[in-house]
Amino acid sequence: MSPVLAGVLQLLALTAALALAHVPLGNYLARVYSSPKHLRIEKWIYKGIGADPDTEMRWPAYLRGVLAFSLAGVLFLYLLQRLQGVLPGSLGFASIDPDQAFNTAASFVANTNWQSYYGEQAMGHVVQTAGLAVQNFVSAAVGIAVAVALVRGFARSRTGELGNFWADLVRGVVRVLVPIAVVGAVILVACGVIQNFSGIHEVGQFMGGTQEWNGGAVASQEVIKELGTNGGGYFNANSAHPFENPTPFTNLFEIFLILLIPVALTRTFGVMTGSVRQGYAILGTMAAIWVGFVALMMWTEFAHHGPALRAAGGAMEGKELRFGIGGSSLFAVTTTLTSTGAVDSFHSSYTGLGGGITMLGMMLGEIAPGGVGSGLYGMLVMAVVAVFVAGLMVGRTPEYLGKKIGIREIKFAACYILITPALVLVFTAAATALPTPGDSMTNSGAHGFSEILYAYTSASNNNGSAFAGLNADTQWFNSTLGLAMLLGRFVPMVFVLALAGSLARQQPVPATAGTLRTEKPLFSGLLVGAVLIITGLTYFPALALGPLAEGLA
Fold this sequence. Notes:
The chain is mainly α. 64% of the residues lie in helices and 3% in strands. Helix 3 runs antiparallel to helix 6 (125-155) and helix 13 runs parallel beside helix 16.
């Protein structure tokens, strides 16, 4: 079987699996976030945290819950790392330095999972399981909760109430993430992913020295790392490590986990708003972008330019033989079009244009299908902008799902869109202009610039992957990347929830003959164009200095 055919067959198998899960999981998620009943274990949790799950919240109260919970998570994870040296199960590792502890705490709470450390050489079992793995669950649940709040904003009318954050958070963990993660972890263990609490083992000589590997609860963390679109690996090699991702099947299964909830949430959106066809329109937009990026990536990486690439059958540098170019390209596009920092190959070793594709996927806002929750609310914000643009073209008041898109709503959407590019470009400019950050670059020229641009693009968009040629374990990068992760995660949530509150207060507008049919393929095409033009062109000058210059050289 040719490598190209193998890649196409993996793409088809993945699409079929997602199609089978889309309707049942999407309907289940709609029931989870619409049911008035509480499970017994949920009632215990509410009692323990002192929350009333039946109290409806307006958007400022919902936002305060999000920020307060996330702040507590940052402080807890920071202290856990700083105290690692005196904790049991630390495997002899010292406490984490303050700047790196801040960076890691911000990273995992913000659902970014950027890692400026070697996982197997820095973090013990307690920090990995009680700290990082727990944040993988709750940070994902926060993203889903915010998305559901925005959906309620479209579905409700003449009220500013968006539900209860604490109920949405707990239900997301108890009813959605934990059950799927348990089943997924069993599958990964059956396929060879390790799951233990063993210490450090010497496994023989390696280049004149001793090779040491440590065990860990890898399968349980690997599954939520992908399912929650987190990305932080137990090992420095991440999903290229055979302990995390041993076979082509596990590679495809992990891609499936990454896409599962973001794809299903489009069905949830349709069910909760009473128009399943609207959900399919959003899904179609996401699918068009994702398939286009996969095709472009496979084309760039399979292109046989030069004798070395012809002999290898494509750009195999930095890729695992067991996954090949097809599986690696599929994984790279999926992780960068979602907020998942997991990698099964070395993005820095991709062709110049291939590396640019990974960056552009993040720059579009990771909305195809995006992270758990964040992908849906990001695409819905772009839909609001697309409706507004369409209204300007035909001279009608823009409407979406029976809600008028006025000055207030478009201001919230515009602020949401502008915050991330501002963070990426300002921090990248500062890092390239100052003398010290440049010392962290492994490469010079266009590729060296791409290392820095990729880092801030990944952090600000809460992705977490890296070109990895950049030495980011410095005070400058730990501090600025940590700040970019927090601002890139929570400032957009402010505008999403404000938009949700504004929509929920409106009275529905009846559809007329002149109403834009947003469930039609025409609108999906307009939405794709809005995504590519409004967000993509913002970064074009920066891309021209980095991956485009390298790819066209």
